Amino acid sequence: MNTAPVLLLPGWQNSGPDHWQSLWETAHAYQRVEQHDWLRPLRGDWIARLEDVLLQQKAPAVLVAHSLGCLLVAAWAAHTRNPHLVKAALLVAPGDAEREELRPVLTSWSPIPMQPLPFKSILVGSRNDPYCSLARAQAFASAWGADFVDAGPLGHLNSESGLGVWPHGHELLCQLSK
Question: pLDDT (tens digit, 9 = 90+) per residue, 14-37?
Fold first, then answer.
């Protein structure tokens, strides 16, 4: 891979020690963007934190987002004056904050921005994700201008999915980083 910094953007409640993001952080020394409150995520706070971290980087970063982290990328891109700070994004298992069961917890995340991202991206969706239907994940990919990858029936593409270090995901990241 090249020298672009890789920033990990976990979703709501963070990524635990067996999550592929945490395993990549350890194996490749990628940087996790720590949020002030993982349990009560406020979109404005998360966007500001991402902007702060991006401004500290020496080169445009590659973002690796999971779940609510995908919505963070879209929200940040819709509001930032610094889109040049991001080279590309790998968006995995976006959470759909507009689903009825998620709205009470993720109140500040709706409406979800549906504008094209100003950088190249790949969105990976699962056929049986309990937080986002495959059709909705494909709609996000289309709206954001992301290439879509169907991961098959792998749930929320998290530690419960049994992905381990998820080599296929890392191959996709390497493609984006070229």
Answer: 999 999 999 999 999 999 999 999
